[in-house]
Amino acid sequence: MLQQLLRLETITKVLLKKILVVFFSSFLSVNIHASIDDYLFSDIGVTSNIHGEIGLINIPSSRILEEGNLKLHLVNSEPINSFVITSTPFNWMEVSLRYSDINFLPYSWYESFSGKQTWKDKSFNMKLRLIKETNNNPELSIGFRDLIGTGWFSSEYLVASKKIGDFDFTVGVGWGNLSTQDGLENPFINYFDNFRQRTGSNSGAGGNFGVENWFRGEKVSTFYGFEYTNKRSGLRFKLDYDSSNPWNLKKTSNYSYGLSIPASKLVDVNLFKHRGEDIGIGVSFKANYSEEIVQKNDLISTIEFSKKDSELLKNDNRVFSGTINVILNEFGIYTQEIHIDGEKLFLTLSQTSFRNPNIATKRTIGLIKNILEIKNISNVSIVYQDANVNTQQVSFPTDKFYAFLENRYSYPELKRHLNFDNFSGYGDYEKIFQGDVKFPIYSWGLNPNLKTHIGAPESFLFSQVGISLSGAIDFSKQTAIRSSVTANVFNNFEGFRLRAFSRLPKVRSDVREYLKQGEYAIDDFSISHIFKPNYSKRGLFISGIKFGILESMFGGVGGEVVYRDITKPWFISANFFWVKQREFRQRFAFRDYETFTGHVNFTWDTPVQGLRLNIAGGRYLARDSGFTLNFSKTFKSGFILGAFATKTDISDTEFGEGSFDKGIYFSIPIDLVSKQYRKGNARFLWRNLTRDGGQMVSGGLGLTNYIESNSSLILKRNGF
């Protein structure tokens, strides 16, 4: 068998070489002097098993990807096929969300209810590294499968891996679905007799942490295997031993083997045979979003001025300020006000390109450096403004910043001279420039629109492809009307036959009706006003109100307030809305249900780099009260991984399947894959189920967007 696999590896390498020769010969007219081996994909790192974890074929290894990685893994391993999203918020933690299609079980025993659809299962897995590998000791990790779910794949394990040369050996012990009746006695039984019992895998409504089952059961089973990496081709040969068979599938061998083939720097293909019966294939796409994937074009052309122009810039404030305004405007940085006091300059800017204000500061000074030098400016203060809210201020001596731009100063050296503070006014500075914005401003946009509903009994996927038309009228920097409408192009929502059952007011569970009847819908139509902010050395206070159609299911009136001192790692916000439920067609009519909802929020940027905690407490849409806990990890690149859970004063029975509201999310900055800086994120949110408990109204003012990224501690930590 090993000889056959080595022969397969040799054949694969030859084919890759031939393909690459044809490719480069066809598209390049120049001579190729480098070796063809230079174009072969090198090792792309550890790969996933059929469960989506980093591992071998069936078993996990102790390995975890570098933090910031996000991986999509699609596996065809009949009769169970899976789609898995895996992320690593920390170097020591791996979390994954798994959708499984279990082909040998029907969705239900009633064809009138679910047709011929097969059983679908959602599960949440987690792996934690306990001990890091050293020269003498292996890496040790602990893992949980189906940590939150129905328990169909519920299991726990301890696993160790040790790399020796090109081989990576793994050995572990598993509980639950990883164990067998002829395995070893659970060692915990010797100390705690209640560890002998483990409840059924699919009991209960699901959605709770199955703590009562962790590391329980009469038996445990060992598993082991190894992985060999060919450094030249990047091919990985895997072999593992796993005696478990929780589904009682046909099995003629406990050994599984396969190959991981690097298709590119981001994609790998996995071929394997497991249980001695089935051949499967898996395809993975992964990228590390904690760093830029595409390098930015940071080159700035130097502007030279004649002697006459230099004299004008030095002596005429109108020429000086006007030149700054023209240059910055070309790069998406807009001058709102300029104040001066001798050799001190105060710039008030708004910008639409840079997520990190530090990058905007670096670009600003790089663009106008020559002008500042001609004017003999020794100190600059920059205030960033968003919708007439001066969100933050940074001040520094120009000679230190010039040295940093010219690589004569490191960032740790520059950091000592950066002063981030709350904006509190311009003092005795003289205003020499005032931006002139002509209101009202009209804007509109046309975009494709995709709506999906996953996991319904009638069909796994319902979707709609449509067109969204959005428009806005800005009457001032504080007041605006916003609206968007959606028109259907194609959908299969006619397949919806069932209505959701709920013991609570149906504030979200009627989503099927909104999708089915809202083919041509008004998504939102509202007017908002932000009051004049209150500035002081102790912080910034912002408030505003909003009225109209707030979102697809609710309209109403309400307001928000937020307070932040940017020198502190926390801020407080609150929102309050009276809302009324919209009719299913989503025009201007409303249903009878109405309620008051509101929350007080405390957000804390913890000492752990990038880790943020948000606690929201208040009244939810279904008139239940409680708290939402939200943890997120924000990387320097702007990539965000997060999870949330809500618990209110309703019982698990009242909530229904899932027991309580929870979900995971990630947000990828668009400019990570662009050569240009730009704001905007691609967001993904997964909820266990759409239920009515613990639901908040969306479509608020979003005042926290003004201040959530301006903490001086984070700005100093992240740098440029």
Walk me through this protein's architecture.
The structure is a single chain. By secondary structure, this protein is mostly beta strands. The chain folds into three domains: about 40-290, Porin; about 305-435, no CATH class; about 440-475 and about 480-720, Porin (Beta Barrel). Strands 20, 21, 22, 23, 24, 25, 26, 27, 28, 29, 30, 31, 32 and 33 form a 14-stranded antiparallel sheet that branches. A twelve-stranded antiparallel barrel has the order 1-2-3-4-5-6-7-9-10-11-12-13. The chain has a six-stranded mixed sheet with strand order 18-17-16-15-14-19. A hairpin with a 6-residue loop joins strand 9 and strand 10. Helix 3 (about 305-315) crosses helix 4 and helix 4 runs antiparallel to helix 5 (about 355-375). It is globular, with a radius of gyration of 29 Å. The two termini are about 55 Å apart. Residues about 1-40 have low confidence and may be disordered.
CATH topology-level name of the largest domain: Porin
CA radius of gyration is: 29 Å
Total number of distinct structural domains: 3
Query: Biggest sheet, in brief?
Result: 14 strands, antiparallel
Structural class: mainly beta
Q: Low-confidence segments, ≥5 residues, pLDDT <50?
A: 1-38
CATH architecture of the largest domain: Beta Barrel
What's the rounded overall pLDDT mean?
Answer: 89
